Amino acid sequence: MIYLDNAATSFPKPETVYQTLDRFARQDLANPGRAGHKMALSSERALDDARHLLNQFFHGEAPERFVFTLNCTDALNMAFKGVLTDGDHVVTTDLEHNSVSRPLRKMELDGRITLTRVRADAGGTISPDDVRRAITPRTRLIAMTHASNVLGTIQPVAAVGGLARDRDLLFVVDAAQTAGVVPIDVQGMSIDLLAFPGHKSLLGPTGTGGLYVGPRAQVRAWREGGTGGDSSSETQPREFPYFLEGGTPNVLGVAGLAAGIQYVQERGVDRLRTHEAELTERLWRRLDEIGGYQVFGHRDAARRVGALSFRTETLAATELGGILDQAFDIAVRPGLHCAPYIHRSLGTFPDGTVRVSPGPFNTEEHIDQLARALGEIAA
C-alpha cells in the first residue's frame, strides 16, 4: 500500500514511536499521580516531560498550560464551549474543518452566539482586512485554521493574531495541519488558544492531542473528575493543567506523542514541510502533463503544506479514490474532507475532491506511481 492520506493521520510512525509505546506499555503503564509507587511516578513524569517538550516546541508561557486531549476536535470544543457566553459574536472562515464549524454553528442555531464566516480568496487564503471588517462590538473571539486541510494553503495567522490582540479579542487557532510542519510560536503569533492533534504531523498515535491555554483565556472546566493530586476539593481544582484534565489521561499515547515530537525536532520542522511541499508540487507538475485534472489552491510552495486537492470531470471523487485503492493499492482521501463550506465556495460540493497528502516517509517514486495510475485512469 502506498499511503498518501497523512492529512487524516500520519502513517507509518517513526520506529522510535512504536518502540516507546511497546516499552512504556510493558514497564510504566500505571495511573499517573494516583499513587506514590514507582510506576505511578514514572507515568506522571512522562506527562510532565511531554508538557515541557510541547512548551519548548510551541514557545508557550509555561508547560502546565498544555492540556492533553483526545484529539484536536476535543481541544477545539474545550476552547469554544469554555470561553464563549450568550450574546458573543465569533468571526471564523469558510476554510474550517467541521471541528471548528460544527460546534460554532450549533451554538449559533441554539441562539447563544452570532457568527460571521469570512471567505477565502480564489487561491484559498484569508485576508486579515476581511477579518477586521467582520469584527463587531459584540465580537469575543476569532477562530481560524492555520492551514486548510483541503487546499493546503497556510493562513496569515500572525497578522490575524495581532489584529485580535489589538482589539482585546481571544484568538483560537486550529493547528491540525501545521503542528509539526510549520513553525508555531503562540506568543509571537498572539495565539490565546492553540488546538493541535498528536497523530498527524507530530507523528504520535491516534487518541492524542492538546490545547494550549494562554493567560488571557479564562476557560471553564470541560469535565470534572479525579485529578490524582487533589482529592479533597469539592469541585475541580483550579490549578492547571488538572483543571481541564479530569479523569485518567492517555498516558501511553502521550508517551508515544513525546517520541514523535522528538523525531520532528531531530529532523527539523522546515525540512519536513519542504519535503512534503516538494512532493505535492511534483504531483501537480505530473497532473499538468497528464491533463484533465483540475487542481485547487494557489501554487506558492512557501505558503503551502503537503495537501493537494484535485478533481476530474469524468469520474466522481469517490469513484476515483476507490479505483486508486482497489486497482492500484494507493490510499488517498476523496470527498468533502469534513470541510463543506470551502467545497461550496470552490464549486466542488457535494462530490468533493481527491486529496493527496504525503508524509515524511513518502518518496518521489510514490508520487510517480500515483501519477502513472492517474494517467492510466484518465486514458
Count of discrete alpha- or pi-helical segments spanning 4 or more residues: 11
Order of helices and strands: EHHEHEHEHEHEEEHHEEHEEHEH
Largest sheet: 7 strands, mixed
Q: Into which percent range does the helicity of residues fall?
A: 25-40%
On the 0-100 scale, what is the average pLDDT?
A: 96
Distance between the termini: 23 Å
Gross morphology is globular
Poorly predicted spans: none
- Strand proportion: 5-15%
Structural class: alpha/beta
Using only CA atoms, what is the Rg?
21 Å
Number of strands: 13
Order the strands across the largest sheet as they lie in space. 2-8-7-6-5-3-4
Note the main attributes of this structure:
four-stranded antiparallel β-sheet; 13 strands; alpha/beta; 379 residues; globular
Structural description of this entry:
The chain is an alpha/beta fold and 379 residues long. The protein has eleven helices and 13 strands. The strands form three sheets. It has a seven-stranded mixed beta sheet, sandwiched between helices. α8 runs parallel beside α11 and α9 crosses α11. The protein is globular and about 70 Å long. The relative contact order is 0.17. The model has no long low-confidence stretch (mean pLDDT 96).
Kindly summarize this structure in a few lines.
The protein is an alpha/beta fold. It is built from eleven helices and 13 strands. Helix 6 (157-166) links the parallel strand 5 and strand 6 (170-174).
